[in-house]
User: Fold this.
Amino acid sequence: MAKYDPASLKTICGTITSYYPDAKVELVKKAYNFAEKAHRGQLRSSGEPYMIHPVDVAQTLADLKLDISSIVTGLLHDTVEDTHATLEEIEKEFGHEITELVDGVTKLSKMTFKTSEEKQAENFRKMIVAMAKDIRVILVKLADRLNNMRTLEHLPPHKQQAIAQETLDIYTPISNRLGMSWIKIELEDLCLRFLHPDVYYKLAQKIARTKKEREKHIEQITELTQEKLKEYDVQATIVGRAKHFYSIYKKMERRKTEFEQVFDIVAFRILVENITECYKALGVIHATYKPIPGRFKDYIAMPKTNGYQSLHTTVVGPYGDRVEIQIRTH
Ligand code: MN
Assistant:
């Protein structure tokens, strides 16, 4: 997993003006100063100044290209709960909209979820979404949770377990439903690291290739496959990705296998014009790379119950490792 660089007021403002050149970053600076004053003297469990936490939360919100109010809320989100600052002061300094957002996040933070029963978890997720009213409250909460998970190593083990489990039960499904896949992926990998450290570190060791190497590998397979498909007149878009640790772990669990049998750590999606082209592309793939027996699934002829349609296969790729391929129409 990539180490994240500590954010600062400067990087936050830089990110905002990159997608919103006329942004009034004065309010962001004002919120930074307000929070910095309120949290002054407080430390994180890591021993660092508390301010690095709201700053990282605000940076995540800026990375998500959210509005100024959300980013300001990110900076202020812990002031009411953890300092002498009050909602009245925030109302006076930052107005009603931001006050409502800060209040929403504060209320969510007071809720903790204990059982890991699926039905209860679903109810709790619904409650959070209903309670938040404004979707931005949930986005701030997700950014808050992301930073807490990134810095979880500084907490005692029993707290690590509880927070990671709650994240997996409640917050990763919410981030998934909101379509925030990078947050979901990072949260899931962090949860795995604290809930099943043995699995996590084994995977990290086995997948010794650096991210860059994996990306280069994906690029090469994409190019080779693209050429092959062109030879046979199949117009296709190929999207490749390196699977994240948690998805590899889930696969190992499902198939009750060891890592050695789950070598398809890169996955590709081939998008074509129509269904006939799907089967044509499959033919090209199987003629080019050796398919792994028992791994071909035709969800086009037999869609999944949720309506999902696609061709799935796993082949031995050009570099000898397993490659998972999904073929579907645009
Ligand atoms: Mn917080």
In short: Strands lie at 236-242, 266-272, 290-291, 297-298, 311-316, 322-329. The CA atoms of residues 75 and 312 lie 44 Å apart. The mean pLDDT is 88.
